[in-house]
Structure formats: C-alpha cells, structure tokens
Amino acid sequence: xxxxPAMTTDECQRALxxxxxxxxxxxxxxxxxxxxxxxxIGNTSxxxxxxxxxxxxxxxxxxxxxxxxxxxxxxxxxxLLKEVAEKYTTETPLExxxxxxxxxxxxxxxxxxxxxxxxxxxxVDGFIATAAALTACQFEPEVRDxxxxxxxxxxxxxxxxxxxxxAEPVLNLGLRLGEGxxxxxxxxxxxxxxKFINEMASFDEAGVSSK
Length: 211
Known about the structure:
Elements: H1 9-28, E1 33-36, H2 43-55, H3 59-62, H4 71-87, H5 93-100, H6 103-117, E2 121-124, H7 127-139, E3 147-149, H8 158-164, H9 181-199, H10 203-206
Parallel strand pairs: 1-2, 2-3
C-alpha cells in the first residue's frame, strides 16, 4: 500500500463475489447461521486503515500491537499506516476496500452482505472480522441487523469500533486472536439463549402455583 493500492477494484469485486458464493453454498445446505473469522499476516494494519477511513478516528487510536509488537515497532507501524492513509483519497466503499485490503477482509465483507441478503445470522469474530462488518455496513447499512458480535478483542481500536457500531459483544475474555475462536465460543451461548426463548416452560405450563 505504500506503493500501490492493495487490490484493483476488479480484484476486490471478485473477492466480494467469492465470499458471497461460499455463503450461498452454505445456505443451500440448510444452514441459517454463519461465523466469520480470519487467518492472516499484517491484517490488523488493513483493518486499522479501514476503521480510520470509515469512522474518521485517528490512525493513532485505530492502530494496535497486532501479534504483539513492542513500543518501537508499534510506533513504526503507526507512522507507516499514517503515511499510507494520507497517500490515497477514496470516494466509495469499493474503492476504499480495494485500496487498503485485504483479500480475506473483502471475502468476509462479500460473505456478510450475502448472508444478510439471505436472512442468515452472522457471527462476527474479533478486530479484523469487525472491520469487515464495518465495511459491509458501508455497502448496505441494513446488514447491521443480522450481525452478532462474539467477543471484545484485546486489540487496540476494537472497543472503539464496536462502540461506533453500537455493538454489545457476547463475550469479553481479553482474547488477542481471530481465526473464528470468538465465534466458536459464542455460538453455543446463542443456541442456548434461543432454546430458552423458544422452549422454556412458563410457570403456567409447568404447573407452578402463583399462591
């Protein structure tokens, strides 16, 4: 990104469509809930840039330690991201996503858009998946209604991004990882909550006396 956009808009569009296709295949198998996590190197940088561009928050508050950078490396990371942010002016969500990446974020974004279109429940993992969700909401604000945020990451900026999206995560365990871990942990709690609402007997049904 110091030299050229992360993707062309055509590459970004293809990534969005591939993410959507994976969701369509999952939905066709009878599934109505899908979780999004990620594996990647350097994608906290892409996420911080997307957060900065879409929320207007400063690079400094959007940028964290990622995989565990020490102070000097964090300072360098922040300076580089500020340089990149100032290099480009983008106008549309597609241009912004293509400029700052990455492909996994674009695929998650496309998948979330399609999942919402299909009426699926979307489980959003940590910082990077939340950046994808934030991006998806720039394309279609109504996507927000389908999103369940699974945990609060220990990555700097995540709490602020969650607050910006008016999100209340299910868990707060201080996790500093993605890979869908938070989604896997939150899923059984959401299933249990659904069962309580739909299957738990009322006092009348259980024959409990009010006297």
